[in-house]
Design brief:
By secondary structure, the protein is an all-alpha fold. The chain has one domain. Helices cover about 55% and strands about 0% of the residues. The chain is globular.
């Protein structure tokens, strides 16, 4: 089940936001969010989009509703 892992990655983001998140969290969160059906909500987070690498989320855009 991927939902808990999405929660783990999101919870790993420091209180100062995505600018200080571990690169692994921002690079792989979109993959796990897409599999769990949570990508739409993630892509509404402007700070995530600002700091995530494009290779981390662009491959999953086709599943956005």
């Amino acid at each position: 089940m991927r939902v808990p892992f999405v929660d783990v990655l999101t919870a790993s983001v420091p209180e100062h936001g995505w600018s200080r998140a571990h690169p692994c969290a921002s690079d792989h969160l979109a993959h796990h969010a897409a599999e769990a059906g949570h990508l739409d909500a993630l892509l509404q987070d402007a700070e995530y989009l600002l700091h995530a690498t494009s290779r981390g989320f662009i491959p999953y855009l086709p599943v956005v509703r």
